[in-house]
Amino acid sequence: MNIMIDTVKLLIPVHNPLIFDGGRFSPISLEQLVNSRGYGKTYLNPSPTYAKMGKYMPRLTMYKRVQKFGVVYQLAVEFSAPKMLFGNNFDELKESDFEALLTALQSSLYELLGHRFFKTQLAHADIAAWHPSKNIVFLDYTSCQTILNTMGKLDVSKMYDLQKTDFRDGHVVHIHTNSLDIAFYDKMADLRKAKKSGKRAFEKDSNLQLNLLEGLSEYRPMEVFRYEVRFVGRASIKRAYPELDKWTFENLYTKEKCQAVLLKHWNKITSSVDMLALDVKEPYELLQNYLEANDNVTPQAALAAVAGLIITSQVGAVGLRNVLEAVYGKQAWYRIKPLLKPPDAYRFTSFLHIDEALQRFTPTRMSDFLSNIENTGK
Fold first, then answer.
1. In the chain, where are the structural domains located?
2. What is the 3-state secondary structure (H, E, C) of the chain?
3. Contact 61/76 with Cβ under 8 angstroms?
4. How far apart are CA 125 and CA 248, in angstroms?
5. How confident is the model at residue 292 (pLDDT cuts 50, 70, 90)?
6. pTM, two decimal places
7. Considering only CA atoms, which of 288, 139, 146, 296 is closest in space to residue 218?
């Protein structure tokens, strides 16, 4: 069984924070937090040294709350599950990876806090953030930007209690609602941005994944369409999974729980898409479709074909022929005519590919692509 999850935030009850090595916390130490009055919190963000070493570590927050029956402490542990286990989130988890994931998390927390949690403590911890996700790989010259441009035109305000929608440089569509966030983005383009500056990337901790660009640079054509549904806060998670009695790491870590959410929101967002209108004969869409249908076409020929198709849609083939022959002679038309075959609609098939990938729900693993490179001698 496969499970597609990225960010997880656990909430672990703590009886005595002073059992931990608290000097790394900021802006105050754990001792200062314990001795403070009223509500408080302090953070332990991994040192940049870990990133330089290529080692992924979780982010920690210690909360202090004063309740009717006394003071309560809670440790929040936020991490990317695939990055914790694989060092990247291109590789996706299986249900059978849960034990190994708990072991890796247990080890990281011991390194940061000097205390070893029981695996049952981690497995039974409540969830405060949960991000089901899926990488959809295209190997047929499909452009993520074309898909994202289409998604950016959808009127999602009719389907969600919308706060705002972000569109970043044509490679991210980020939908913010009152109860969750939904993100679609071009993963490879985001990594290329991160290579220039981590602040420009949509995804956190991208510097740890730059080896993906090197490892997969020879695997072309490759586009990776990334889809995430982000639940933040206990209330939104409970609304998403009302059938559960306890919203713990172990209970949510199933294929069924992740796949159902991803399919639900994908179907909701794309239900209003007029598939026939996805390939209206606009210049950009025509170019994308022409490149899809003609692998070996030169840039000059592709641009000439698009221009010719647009002109013939306005004045017909006779009108274009008359213009060309008047200036360049009769042979010009016969050179251009073979290019004027309208391409098939490819954006429609790209949506179907995403839908099929969500239905199959098989994990993406970088090793599969790297072995293909070796086997083909690339």
1. 5-270, 295-339
2. CECCEEEEEEEEEECCHHHCCCCCCECCCHHHHHHCCCCEEEEECCCHHHHHCCCCCCEEEEEEEEECCEEEEEEEEEEEHHHHHHCCCCCCCEHHHHHHHHHHHHHHHHHHHCCCCCHHHHHCCEEEEEEEEEEEEECCCCCHHHHHHHHHCCCHHHCCCEEEEEEECCCEEEEEECCEEEEEEEHHHHHHHHHHCHHHCCCCCHHHHCHHHHHHCCCCCCEEEEEEEEEECHHHHHHHCCCCCCCEHHHHCCHHHHHHHHHHHHHHHHCCCCHHHHHCCCHHHHHHHHHHHCCCCCHHHHHHHHHHHHHHHHHHHHHHHHHHHHHHCHHHHHHHHHHCCCCCCCHHHHHHHHHHHHHHCCCCCHHHHHHHHHHHCC
3. yes
4. 5
5. confident
6. 0.79
7. 139
49-80 burial: b if 16+ Cβ within 10 Å, else e: eeeeeeebbbbbbbbbeeeeeeeebbbbbebb
**What is the Cα Rg of the chain in Å?**
26
Tell me the C-alpha distance between 361 and 133, whole Å: 11
Tell me the per-residue pLDDT of 223-251, one tens digit each, with 9 for 90 and over.
899 999 999 899 999 999 999 999 999 99
In tens, the pLDDT along 313-322 reads 778 777 888 8
C-alpha 62/C-alpha 43 separation (Å) is 6
Average pLDDT over residues 148-154: 78
Res. 373: pLDDT tops 50: no
Q: Are 210 and 194 in contact (CB under 8 A)?
A: yes
> Does the structure show a pLDDT above 70 at 330?
yes
